[in-house]
């Protein structure tokens, strides 16, 4: 029997639902509240900071509304929601609600989560209600004075001011056009008495931000009108009489999807869908094309890419493109590029240079990555969710992406869980790819990212809450030595400072032999309240944190610490978050060979831990009680009293003394500090038991 040692080089493989012997080194069974970081390894996620209470579910009923994110500039961003004929917006930095004028009792805003699509550009947020049928409105002016065979037969314009004539040309209707006299000459006009334009109440609406920073909900004031031609030479766009399902911008045009048609506006005139002239087709005319297919086509989403615009329907994908790269009515073409099934409710997202979409089965959600190729090439597809089959439930109802950090996320409004996939590439080489999950302090109603910040709206009990967290902010040496837990990105949720009350401006008081720290949010049942001493206002930080009891008195809700008076200290309050990693069975590996038949006894596992506080290793031998080994990175004879209790480069040895398939191992942490797992090495006894190896 040989003594052997093998290394797990990192824990960046993420979650895999494959059998343990098929997992790649670095993959695990499950990750809860972790984050894959190519620099620091598998780390415990940062906590979410409490921003504001957004109201109660029962009072506002916004929990199942359509949420959206809008950034105006580098300092101003908002999260908003549409529900029950009204909308609300909150500043994500301050949590303060931003008033929107004219936003209540709006018939166009009637609907729920899946009834709207929202895009933004500069100072406008454009909203389309996918359940509203577009109608026409108004009548073109004038009355027809006569018909002439050609323009040469027109009477003198000077004596026919305001008169309308039809120029018939040939017997074909396609070359007819209409002119009007302005008293000097004949100018092209629209046929009198036909539809002039669109009913603004059925067209997309907008939220407009004015120069003073105020928002107003309104109809689009500058909808295009039919100024030339008739219903043959300048027809209604194909979305008239249909429902608009999606909006997008491409080639300086606004694009709309309606049934099987894709319609693009005139350049720079985003709501003008009529031609410039009935006599000639110009490059600035709108584009209106159908996606012809033997299958039923109902376009649901569009994503502009370098090659054109990728159009998605439930069972087929198309590309809207032009050989010149510029979309014009004469050169724009739609062709089929693939036949994947795509969920019709969850829109695909762009993630850097690729597109991700989902397809639900009855039990789980399949996740597929699309890579568009050259102009004449079909795209490439990768089923990135194959190795986590059945990990993502079919109940997920939203998908978002963060191109800056190369990850996607999915969540379900009726669940606390969110699922993520992240990868890291250098050139064409993928150096990291893996799945992981988060468990939030309430049901996730909305989640969005912007650069290195992530925003979440959660529902707990009857309360809706806005939270935010930083990504890629692993504490540095200066943050650790500063002693400030706030600056070192603590790992607990609902991070807030004490709430000042009417009688206690500090938000704390000592009564009945306990220190009461008043919180600005409602008490949440089922979570573990925690208070963490912070180094602020000259107080000394010692890494002291306490699990609290909760209560409510005349001053409000509070977290309570029993014992001596601690009101002189500065505190942060919140709820513990539990970091968990379920390790797989360990097997002897040699290149691509995994030995599942040999006898292998694991003696110990040495974990390399980076920037970390305390974490626990929970060993559960089969048929025996669980054993917990507590790892602390702080040594009593080395710890500096006024530093955050986080150390770097620690090796912790976990004794196992079990057969490799005879125990389960979980790594966990519930303290308010980061944990970074960088690598591991296991030692054991290995015997082939007389099996011949070739």
State the main characteristics.
1% helix, 58 strands, 694 residues, single chain, 5-stranded antiparallel β-sheet, 6-stranded antiparallel β-sheet
| Low-confidence runs | none
Tell me the helix content. Answer: under 10%
Q: Structural class, from helix and strand content?
A: mainly beta
Query: Main beta sheet: strand number and arrangement?
Result: 6 strands, antiparallel
Which word captures the global form?
flat
Overall pLDDT metric:
90
Q: How many helices?
A: 2
Radius of gyration: 32 Å
β-strand percent reads over 45%
What is the tally of beta strands?
58
The N- to C-terminal Cα distance equals 18 Å
Walkthrough of the structure:
The protein has two helices and 58 strands. The chain is an all-beta fold and 694 residues long. It is flat and about 105 Å long. Strands 1, 5, 6, 53, 56 and 58 form a six-stranded antiparallel β-sheet that branches. A five-stranded antiparallel β-sheet has the order 4-50-57-54-55, with no helix packed on it. The protein is 1% helix and 47% strand. The model has no long low-confidence stretch (mean pLDDT 90).
Task: Give a quick rundown of the structure.
With 694 residues, this protein is mostly beta strands. The protein has 2 helices and 58 strands. The strands form 15 sheets. Strands 1, 5, 6, 53, 56 and 58 form a 6-stranded antiparallel beta sheet that branches. The protein has a 5-stranded antiparallel beta sheet with strand order 4-50-57-54-55, with no helix packed on it. Strands 12-22-21-14-13 form a 5-stranded mixed beta sheet, with no helix packed on it.
